[in-house]
Design brief:
This protein has two helices and five strands. By secondary structure, the chain is an alpha+beta fold. It has a five-stranded antiparallel sheet with strand order 4-3-2-1-5. Strand 2 (50-56) and strand 3 (60-66) form a beta hairpin.
């Protein structure tokens, strides 16, 4: 066979090899991280829940979700093992020194974003009335109180 015809197959096999190799590395790193857990460390589950490790077993972990509330999770459900500083910052709100408290303050409403009302000389701010006026309203039938020969909302013109 011609080597040019074998080139796409070789490239495909090489790409598959590289993808499986990187996936195996990620799995090994996750397994090592889960094996390094110790009681008392903070973790984040794959569902996004933060908890403290209380007990370790072969395939399961006993987590304390809140004071006095315990749950058993599979070791594979642990998404990340957090260091103490990061866990305390996220869960307890400790160490807020990383926040920029002197920065720009964003208002809760949009009143500060508009300049209406700041200059009293602007008379161009006329209001537009989008409702029907009384003289433009459709005439009503005196006996029934309904619109005369008009279609109700939602009625189609098809017969």
């Amino acid at each position: 066979m011609n080597p040019v015809t074998l080139l796409p197959f070789i490239v495909l096999i090489g790409a598959m090899f590289l993808m499986t190799r990187s996936a195996k590395k990620k799995q090994a790193a996750a397994a090592q991280m889960r094996n390094e857990m110790q009681p008392g460390t903070g973790v984040r589950t794959i569902g996004g829940m933060y908890a403290t490790v209380k007990e370790l077993h072969d395939d399961t972990v006993l987590l304390e979700i809140a004071p006095g509330v315990h749950a058993i999770y599979a070791k594979n459900a642990i998404g990340a093992v957090l260091d103490d500083a990061e866990y305390n910052r996220i869960v307890h709100g400790d160490d807020e020194s990383g926040l920029d408290l002197d920065g720009t303050v964003v208002p809760d409403d949009a009143s500060s974003l508009t300049e209406a009302g700041t200059d009293a000389d602007d008379a161009d701010d006329t209001r537009i009335d989008l409702g029907k006026k009384a003289d433009e309203a459709e005439p009503k039938d005196a006996e029934s109180g309904k619109k005369s020969e008009g279609k109700d909302d939602g009625e189609a013109d098809a017969k």
